[in-house]
Amino acid sequence: MRPLLALCLVSLALPAWAEAPSPVKVAELSARLYAAGMEAGDPLLVLSAAKLRKGLSPVKGPRAAVDGVAGEGRPLGWEEMLASAAALAAGDAVILGLVQDALVETTKGVASGPVYNIGSLGNGKGDTYPPIEFRGGEYAEVYVEAKAAVNLNLSVFDDRGRLVCSDTDISHIAYCGWTPATGGSFTLKVENKGPAGAEYALMTN
Q: What domains are defined for the chain?
């Protein structure tokens, strides 16, 4: 992919928000850019993903699935993304220079990044999380990603068992965002539809 085309794709993927996107949304966008860049073999897209993710400050929380298997590690990091960009840009001095600049540049980051936990799911398995409180009238977000090429589904249910949001696309990334009419408890379910087991990171705002 030519550099100009890659930059155009990045600009399309980064809309002009009236307000700054939330850390959870930035995490999702960076993962999607990274996946697109790796699939296309485009180091500029991967570099853009790394720069987005470098501004996050994810915080590990105590949340765990009911009878679930806890995983180790953390969400995909910007360092890993930059390493991938450098590998794709091998021999291109200009792009390697941009990667080096991104590696050493400082970033303010967010005051409070998304809360995450790491779970592990076998093929065809699911994790259900204890009810989580979200405030009425405030936008709520839940996001899940895996490093492996698996198909993760995400569902959110209210305290009456009604489905309020779901993301069942065939992807290793799933995002749900909604505004509860009133405050209450919501149950999250993550499912691994295959083709293999994998660890995943679950993030909430």
A: 3-67+74-104 (no CATH), 115-204 (2.60.120.380)
Q: Which residues of 167-201 are buried (b: 16+ CB within 10 A; e: fewer)?
A: beeebbbbbbbeebeeeeebbbbbbbeeeebbbbb
Crossing angle for the helix pair 23-40 and 3-13, nearest 10 degrees?
150
* Highest-pLDDT range among 14-28, 55-69, 182-196: 182-196
Per the DSSP assignment, residues forming a β-bridge with 173 are 145
The confidence band for 4, taking pLDDT boundaries of 50, 70 and 90, is very low
In the chain, what percentage of residues exceed pLDDT 90?
A: 70
Query: 189 versus 9: which is more confidently predicted?
Result: 189
Average of per-residue pLDDT values in the chain: 88
Q: Can you give the pTM of this predicted structure?
A: 0.84
What is the separation, in whole angstroms, between the first and last Cα of the chain?
35
Is the pLDDT at 49 greater than 50, yes or no?
yes
